[in-house]
Each structure stands twice: as C-alpha cells, then as structure tokens.
Amino acid sequence: MFVIIGWVVALACIFGVYIAHGGNMGVILHALPFEMTTIFGAAIGGMIATNPPKVMKATMKGLGTCFKGGKYTKARYMDLLALLFDILQKARKEGLMSIEKDVEDPHSSPLFQKYPTVGNDHHVAEFITDYLRMMVSGNLNAHEIESLMDNEIDTHHHEAYMAVQAIQRLAGGLPAFGIVAAVLGVVNTMGSVGQPPAVLGGMIGSALVGTFLGILLAYAFAEPLAGLLESKVDEDGKELQCIKTTLLASMQGYAPQVAIEFGRKVLYSTERPTFSELEAHVKKK
C-alpha cells in the first residue's frame, strides 16, 4: 500500500509542477505509448537475457510481496517464540525423544498447530524441525549445528537477494533504454526535417519524453521496489536468526524461559515484544 502512495505522491509532484509551469501534457500523452513500449520492451528483453528462469520466477514472486503488508509483526514473533518455548519445555520435562513425533509430522502436531501462523509456514516449520531432529539424534554439538545454521541462512539470503539484484540491474538500465528511445525519436525527427517548425518541435519534444520516462521509471519506480524487496529479505532472515539463537541457547543448557529471551533480543526493536508481553503471551497460550 505504501509503495503505491509513494508513487502517487511522486507523480503528483512531478506532473503538478510541470502543468503549473505551463507544460503541455498533450505532448507527453501523445508520445507515452510508443516510448513506454520501447523502454519496457528493451527492459524485459534485457531481464530475460540476464537472469535464468528461477531468478525471473523469484523476481515476479518478490514483486508481488511488495504490494502486500508485512507479515513479520509483533504478534507473529510472539507466536514463534511461544511455539519454541512449548517445544523446548516438553523436551526438558519429558526428554528429547518426546518431541520426535512433533518433529516428524509438524502438520499434525498439537504443538505446531496451536500456532498456525508460524506452524503452517512451510519454511519456518522445516527450519525448526530439521535442527530439532539433529538435537534429538545427539550426533552434533552446538558449534557444529550453529555453523550449519549459518550456512543455511546465508544460502537462503543469497537466493532471496537474487531478485533484489535483478530489479537493481533493471533500474540501472532504464535510463539507458530511455536514451535509446529518445535517439530513435531524434532519428525520426531528422527524417522529417522539411516539416514546419511547429511539427518538428512537437517531434523533438516527443523524443525527449523517452529520456524523461527512463529516468522516472528507474528512480521513482524500480529503485524503490528493489529497496522495499531488500527490506523484506532482511526481515525474512531475521526470523531464522531468532529461531537459531533460541535453539542454540537451549543446546547450551539454558532453560526454555531464558532461551526464548535470547531469541527475543535479536529481533528488530519495532517488532520485538517486551519481556512482559512475551511472558504474558506464553502463559496465556
């Protein structure tokens, strides 16, 4: 929603000032379909040539998330930490083998289904159960599991960041594609040099619209989308870091109440629940 508001503000200010200074919107509107087709066609062709299909698919999916509200809220993190608390508490009271069924089938586990927001998130459930399974097996120590977690989080971040890089490359190319459209307009104008000055002026103005659109699309549309998607990728990784910190604290011998406090501390301050809020939520659940 906010990205759309930002675009509306940008367009209103740019074209509002243009019209206030006596600008003729007819010139821009006349050239808009042709220049947009040239710029977008070149941009899409360049993206297809540069990025493999998996990156294109991830980019389209990532762009879709830019127009949705953020899912990483304080309520979600409280559910996540409460889920981890319940799992670790059960393992502490009944032994690690008691959570084996929960680990093998989280979709039918009462613990995971008590918190459907995170329990039904495939990526979160898989990350938790994979490392709980290693904890149950007892073959790896905390340092080995920490190294493995870091590698998985880095891989996840790198894969997600490919979409950000694709949009950033697109933003970098849009001004150049705008110049290409402008040059083609100038070439077309030079071929009509015998026309009256008024006609030539309109043709030159239409040609310059290409440069204007390339720069506008790059810095008012593509770059903000890349920045927004980058923020979402960072938030996605923060959730995995929270899980990692909590599980490692448990492996090092801390009680579940203390382990989730370790996880709470790594969250961003804007979504981090207070100690009292988390304690009340855990007790309520």
From TrEMBL:
Entry's transmembrane regions: 32-51, 170-187, 199-222
Residue ranges constituting the Motility protein A N-terminal domain according to the UniProt record: 4-95
Top-level taxon: Bacteria
UniProt topology in membrane: Multi-pass membrane protein
PANTHER family for the chain: CHEMOTAXIS PROTEIN MOTA, MOTILITY PROTEIN A
Compartment annotation: Cell inner membrane
Protein name (Swiss-Prot/TrEMBL): Flagellar motor stator protein MotA
Source species: Roseateles rivi
UniProt main location, coarse: membrane
Residue intervals of the MotA/TolQ/ExbB proton channel domain: 124-237
